[in-house]
Amino acid sequence: MPYPSVKGVSVAEQSWHEARLIPTSGINGPDEQERRATSALLAVLTSVREYGRVLLKPCGAPVGTIETYIEVPFLLGDKKLYPDGLIRVSRGSKSWTALVEVKTASNKLATDQLENYLDVAREQGFDALITISNEIPAVAGQHPTQVDRRKLKKVELHHIAWTQVLAEAVMQKEFRGVADPDQAWILGELIRYLEHKASGAMEFTDMGESWTSVRDSVAAGTLRPTDKDIVTVVSRFDALLRFTSLRLGRRLGTEVVPVLTRRELTDPALRAQALTQMLCDSGQLAGAITIPGTVGQLVITADLRASRITCHTDLDSPREGRPTTRVNWLVRQLKNAPASARIECFQAHARGSSAAELLSTVRVTPASLVADPARDIRMFRVAAVTAMGTKRMGVRGSFIQSVLDATDEFYAGVLQDLKAWSAAPPKMRPISPTAPDAEPTRPASLSSTDFSSQDGPATDEE
């Protein structure tokens, strides 16, 4: 007896699982999860040339033929060690080799294990140790695990978050492109696998154990720079900014990065100190991300006292036209922005904003933003405020999800529609003040003996 069908598919077929190159079924425990994630990633690195190059280049690998292996045994003294993987890139007679250590889900990298692998790499003459986990350092280039710096004299230590592995895969397949269709399909299978919750390639979902106590101290006004829990919270906030950048970049197909000064890049402690002081003084955490092609940075401010997230961007005002004309120029671009968005106006030779109004008001009365018609407007600020989640982790009501949602909404409703002002190109003057084909009407006595752009067309009598 045949099974009943729904739109041409039998009831039995609805429970069938499509065959996948990298299946998520049958993963039993963290060891199997790590082994499968490692094998899948390393195999794709060798199969999809463009992806292998873009992921390994920041680690110092040259362009060449990629070979990968899993669980290669090594002896270190009387110990037998099994790094999760090994990558070798060969070009001519030269080769670059790196050991690989992988963690999935909430598992963290261990200092003693990494130091053992660094010793193995040094003894074998390898170039690097690459770690992959769900840990996201506060600053790009930092490693989430502290190791003895003396072990890094001859071997480099690099870290790649699973979020970055996935982001690079999506950007390569969907935006940069893969020349070979079969390789593109293979990369798509890796993306499908990593996006599945069973893969262990988790997204950023936890603000850390110190979040609740710091949040409550801010609300009570008792937080001090010496409180030990602040260190974890400010570090997790910067990690959230990096995750937000990678997530947004994955959707836009471009490299989105947090904004840091040169001093902060060379000395991350400066950034941590600044955030600590800001949190104690104002109860706020703030940072900015830069997106190629946009008019300005996307600044994210979390106000823990007011329980709100503010996203804003600044853009220069036009350099010509009346003040209301300049306001209308901005309003026309904000057709998709929420009416609750706030617009601030900054006038020349004045400190701070001179006026601020909701977009709903400015749409009806542009002059409400013009505090002094005699002064030029030099800059606008567009901001959107949303409620802040307070929970440490999870999706609904969590601080992390509220930051992600606020960022997505601000970019989609405001930032992606804004364009910088540019002056109109100069218009070419007509040769004659009258119609182009008309004869000049000036007296001959006023004609110059030299040809000029102000003269009309020459005549036979001249």
List its traits:
462 residues, alpha+beta, 7-stranded antiparallel β-sheet, 5-stranded mixed β-sheet
User: Count of DSSP helices?
Assistant: 12
Helix and strand run: EEHHEEEEEHEEHHHHEHHEEEHEEHEH
> Can you tell me the overall shape?
globular
Strand order of the largest sheet: 10-11-12-13-16-14-15
- The termini sit apart by 105 Å
- Describe the sheet with the most strands: 7 strands, antiparallel
Average pLDDT score: 89
Structural class: alpha+beta
Using the CA coordinates, give the radius of gyration: 30 Å
E-strand count? 16
The helical percent reads 25-40%
Strand content: 15-25%
- Unreliable runs: none
Written overview of the protein:
With 462 residues, the protein is of the alpha+beta class. Helices cover 34% and strands 19% of the residues. The protein has 12 helices and 16 strands. It has helices spanning 29-47, 49-56, 111-124, 162-176, 181-194, 211-220, 229-252, 262-266, 268-282, 323-333, 359-364, 399-413, and strands at 5-6, 9-10, 65-70, 74-76, 79-81, 85-91, 94-102, 128-133, 156-161, 257-258, 284-290, 298-303, 308-316, 342-347, 355-358, 377-387. The strands form 4 sheets. The protein has a 7-stranded antiparallel β-sheet with strand order 10-11-12-13-16-14-15. It has a 5-stranded mixed β-sheet with strand order 3-6-7-8-9, sandwiched between helices. A two-stranded antiparallel ribbon has the order 1-2. A hairpin with a 7-residue loop joins strand 14 (342-347) and strand 15 (355-358). The chain is globular, with a radius of gyration of 30 Å. The N and C termini lie far apart (105 Å). The mean pLDDT is 89.
